[in-house]
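Sample entry (865 residues):
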Amino acid sequence: MSRDAQINAGMHRVSVPHAVSAEIRHEVDARHTIDARHRPTPFAESFMSVALRWNPTKAAARALTAALLGVIVGGFSARDALAQSPQGDDLVIFDSRTTLSFDAGNSATAAVTTAEAGTADMQQWREYDKRIQAASSVSDLSPGLFGDAVNQYNGTLSFSVTDISVSGNSGLPVALTRTFEVTDNNGNPIDDKFLGDWDLDVPRISGIYAPDWPTDRCTNTARAPTAFAGATAYSGFEYWQGNTATMPGGGELLRADQGAAQPSSGAITADGTVFTFDWLVQYAEQPLNNPTTATASPQPLNRVRNVLYATKVQDRFGNWVQYTFDAAKPAQLTTISANDGRQITLAYNVRGFVSRATVGTRQWTYGYANDSDATQPPTLTRVTLPDSSQWTIDFKALSDTTIDYASGDPPIACGFPQPILSDQGGLIGTGTGIATHPSGATGTFVIAPQRSGRSNVPKFCANWTFPDEQNDPADDVAVYPRASAVLALRTKRIAGPGLPTQEWDYQHMSGSSWAAGTGPVCDTPDCLEPVCVDDSCAGTNETTVTAPDGSWERYVFGNSYRYNEGKLIRIERGSGATIVRSDTTRYELAQTGQPFRTPVGTSPRDRGEGFTSEYLRPQRSTVIAQDGATFTSQVDPCGTTKCFDEFARPTRASQFSSLGFSKGQSTTYYDDRALWVLGQVASVTDVATGKKIREVSYDARAQPIVIQAFGMLRRTLSYYGDGTVNEDGDGNGHKVTLSGWMRGIPQSIRFADASTRSAVVDGLGQITSTTDELGATTSYSYDIMGRLVSLSIPGWTPTSFSFVPVASTEFGLPAGHWRLTEATGTYKKSTYFDGRFRPLLTLEEDTANAASKRYSTRAFDHENR
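Predicted structure, serialized as tokens:
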């Protein structure tokens, strides 16, 4: 059966009982999405929020959205919310970095700020030669060349690889990005995504539901309704973990307070971009077995994953990107297109998985294992680029790996589910995934199950029987999980042509504890409140990453229930037993008495699962200790609280060091609530002198038009209707006029002295010719991957470029390495690269003189230094 037939029929390939204890571990760790590359920014987190509102003018979209979200969102079904007021009860998408503001009329507004928000250089134009240079050079590949990212909180592994990205005049991406998440499949892999076991990164709202959700969404408005599999009842918190928006600034869908400000339609990010979600697709999801309530001979509950995809994204200037799906095969995305002519076209194989992606004359193809065997789940094994180079992928073990539990010895108890199986000290469930980059580098990723814990969790055991001696621990389930099992990265290894094997080792430590004085049941109104609200009693999770050279980084996170869980509190770097640097971050964790809203919304999930989404907890200080000195950045006090505004943005901060240097700055922000463009910097003032370091004025569309520094004019800007820059002036009134924007490049540049430069840009964003101020025209041509292959300068010998893989050994480099050749007349330069595109050897010569050869070699460490 094809993927679309399975999706449309709502069929599950396999029905495997799934222990509720295994389900709980996903609920615990779903809240923490810390990227390995995350670093705390001084003073403030990057806050992003999105408001979502039902559009009464689009009945179909509203019906689909109501169907998706109707199980409940904050105590209201979509239908109920629409019926309650002419405007509807708005829903706000928040992650753990989101804020609400309230005006005098008690209406709420969601906001975004970043440490760099408000910078005036939003639409900088670049000189043509920089574009050409980028097309003719080869950039080395970082250790993350496989798109891998590690959640350092618990060690979970994911991948994100952008195969195609077409630049345009707007900031709206037209791109094809594939993603892969390593999760416990519970013995039942369901690979029905766009690319089999890989997915496409398409904006969406999604949630997992019981199969009878359409009939229950209005009758159970307080929370996800109880679902039945025959006579077996499953509570809503068992099968549903909320709805999530996958988009910029997305996160858990929260219910906002009544009267909250709301956009007129769709979901709007804090730069004024509107996402329209109105394409519903239903997928199979893992069945669930053994409900929390003890049941004799329980029947498994089949579940579905409902996904509401975006079909249009439009910025505040009217630029748009559309996602078009096949009406007859709703799970097939056919095109990603933009108003400026960019387009990616997708084709599918007979089983309903992406087989080809096309941009103009360029084509990417996708191959699968089990491609012709409909009884087996497909796995993506090959991505072939337009130049015939390939990604090869073997993630079957990562797709199939499951966490196995011991049965009966020791018995299951409220504190933990069954122990993870071990075999003479070796963990069952270890899996290895291998990916080979087109560069020739091969990455090997080894995962294994491990415990991830929480501290100070209230002990509340479902199914506990009194008196205690008559209780059967085998049916006890922790309502508030203390620990969970995840598949975590243990080892990452990179090898390839010219590369010494490079290995990173990951070690995870996690403490867990019950809150003192709680359990085994909750029999008082306050037993679920946090008992630890101080760093002295809070536990931690730690991940130590040891690099190939023996140096290490240690990430320390708080894990205390409803206090600091999920927060990165310290990064230590060192070698051997020596710590050479530490970065310690403190957060504003008080849940009342703040100048910003606490909480920002209400999670519809039970058991306190939505805490990290409901509360902002912004950074209040960062201390760096290195070489015997300390460097501190902190938000200053303003009365009884820290100097945060209503959006939890710092308004006054200071920096100082043990070396005796210090400074303080105050910041004001520009928020255009009508356009929903929030968090741009209006001014930065030196506290000691009162002088304005930077001041920015904005036009009616929230674009910077005047930038001043210390009271002096620095820059002026004007814009076209689509948001591209028209004029860019300096402090002396000299203006550069830009016009003919094509794929993000101005094809005409007119300087203040009336001289001009121009370019011709093709539909792929390639500069095919440039004409300088003297009228001299230089021509360029490119290969199928957009790399420069020839450069013709007037009155000069043409230059050719060739970048190709080499199938034989050269200068000790094994087959599979790449070579870049640049030739102008008899001058020839050959550069030989290793598997991470690092230039190991360069040969320059006059081909007419055999004695002219000159060699230079380089060596690099694992960080390309």
